[in-house]
């Protein structure tokens, strides 16, 4: 997979069998060994990346056309749900729409994170207003609120209120400054809470 991908990126096309069969040079072997040693992406997206690579390897192994460097027509890739069924491996879809009933909040939201941070990460936690830079923001990169459920957000407010974490204000700190809350898989029974701001 590594050789095939590197050749495709370099050549801008599928490599031929002859090109794939060339022995790597010493420097290329070191780069390939380094790539193989890299860990999966840390955090919640690592297992999802691993599962996606597994799906890709299975697709390539089953597709005889990929043995030829020139395809008559592109093949459509589809996940094979039988490889990693979502009910058996729920952690492979770590982010989910808000479901307040699965959230388990602990603490008071007062952990002094700035005491544990250094460098450029320290200032935003010491003074969050630093992030309100006033520059134009590319809204295409902002979280989408189109599919949000008012009912589920009302349930979330009740969860926050029960934990003493709810404060209500007449308007956002600045116009258009909102936060989308969603679930991140923790166990089969409960999820973490994630907030995505614009």
Oligomeric form: single chain
Q: Per DSSP, what share of the residues sits in E-state strands of 2 or more residues?
A: 5-15%
Helix content: 25-40%
Structural class: alpha+beta
Q: Please tell me how large the radius of gyration is.
A: 23 Å
Number of domains: 2
Average pLDDT number: 80
Q: Strand sequence of the main sheet, in spatial order?
A: 1-2-3
> Please, how many helices?
6
Low-confidence spans: none
N/C terminus separation: 38 Å
Secondary-structure element order, as H and E? HHHHEHHEE
How many strands, what sense, and barrel or not for the largest sheet? 3 strands, antiparallel
Shape: elongated
**Total number of strands:** 3
Q: What would your notes on this structure say?
A:
This protein has 198 residues and is an alpha+beta fold. It folds into two domains: 2-87, no CATH class; 94-197, no CATH class. Helix content is 31%, strand content 8%. The protein has helices at 2-11, 17-20, 26-37, 46-62, 122-126, 150-162, and strands at 95-96, 179-185, 191-197. A three-stranded antiparallel beta sheet has the order 1-2-3, with no helix packed on it. Strand 2 (179-185) and strand 3 form a beta hairpin. It is elongated and about 70 Å long. The mean pLDDT is 80.
